[in-house]
Amino acid sequence: MEENLLNELENFTSIKYLDDVTNNNCCNDGDQDSSLAHQLAIKDRQLILAAKCGKVLLEEKDELERQIELMNRDYQQRIDVLEQERHELRLLLEQVQSECDTKVIETNEDKFELRRQLNDLRREQRMHDEQQTQAIRELTEINH
Among residues 97, 117, 54, which one has the least CA distance to residue 125? Predict the structure, then answer.
């Protein structure tokens, strides 16, 4: 239907059609009534064509609006999915960050405990070394 409508529209706008109308307007006065009737018929046909064009345009507009609505719904669904994924990722990030913070705290506590143990061992080692040195002195004094 749209193709036929476009063909009719092209016919109305063609130079041949305009020439035909012009030639009909230039006829003698005797043909003036038939010329007016012809022009009226042309105007009626143009009016019908304009109405058909308007109807087709409205149908196309309605179809485009329907497609836009479908696209909007589709995009909104995609946005909703992405927002849900973003929310889940935020929760996961918070969980991982919390676990990481806990690990850092535990590692620092372990580090401090190991340092304390190392200091205790060093102190014990010094005391042991001093005791050995003292024992060696005493044995040296006894042997001399």
Answer: 117
d(CA 18, CA 23): 9
- Taking the complete model, does pTM exceed 0.70, yes or no? no
Which residue type is seen at 78? Answer: R
C-alpha dihedral sign at 121, 124, 128, 129? positive
Between 15-25 and 32-143, two packed helices, what is the crossing angle to 10 degrees?
150
Two tokens, residue 12:
């109305």
pLDDT digit of tens for each residue in the chain (144 aa)? 667 666 766 666 554 555 555 555 555 555 687 899 999 999 999 999 999 999 999 999 999 999 999 999 999 999 999 999 999 999 999 999 999 999 999 999 999 999 999 999 999 999 999 999 999 999 999 987
Angle at 19 between CA 31 and CA 10, to 5 degrees: 125
Element (H, E) at 92: helix 32-143
Task: Please give the DSSP secondary-structure letter assigned to residue 28.
Answer: -
Alpha carbons 24 and 32: distance in angstroms, whole number: 9
Tokens (6 digits) for 54:
């308007």
